[in-house]
Amino acid sequence: MKKLIKKAVQLFLLLLVAGIVFIAWANYSMKRNTEDFLFSNVAEIPETKTALLLGTSKTLGNGQPNAYFYNRILAAAELYRSGKIQYLIVSGDNSRKDYNEPEDMQKALMERGVPEDRIFLDFAGFRTLDSVVRAKEIFGQHKIIIVSQQFHNERAVFLAQQNGMEAYGFNAEDVNQYAGFKTNVREYLAKTKAYLDLITGVEPKFGGKKIQIP
Fold first, then answer.
1. What residues in the chain have per-residue pLDDT under 70?
2. pTM (2 decimals)?
3. For residue 168, which of 177, 157, 158, 179 has the smallest C-alpha distance?
């Protein structure tokens, strides 16, 4: 009995160590492979027809404004005004009647001068993988600039490139370290899951009719 317990403990420790090593490797590899494709200066980023703005909640659980959301909106509006892009796909969650990330982003962008006819809404961007793959398969974009915070762009650009797209990231301003602690920890695990999704061939939850961007 003691030998069985000892073997079980050893197996558990081995799997734990392997898991930690894989998580660290996945994050390092993703960061290293995308660093040359991420930009914080709009003047340096290549021109392309369309940008993909990744969604997040407009407000936090306590009702306060979400800095991640507003910083992404400011970055996307700056990118459009610079002339580096002509159109925006706003992709996010719309799984409940009282929650609509794409429409919230569309409204915020229009308030900052982006014309409505330059904004395309993707209501099925439930995950980063879904948003990225749908930009290619549904909206027909093979070259794209992804707008989010840098830690998120690392994963999104990686996924886009792995799905045969020419992808760049425009980094929105991050939030302070304290406010973003939980988000950064969650992103560390999300990068690991992104690798597992590629290995296992996970696909977007929903398809749909093709949408043509002029």
1. 177-180
2. 0.89
3. 157
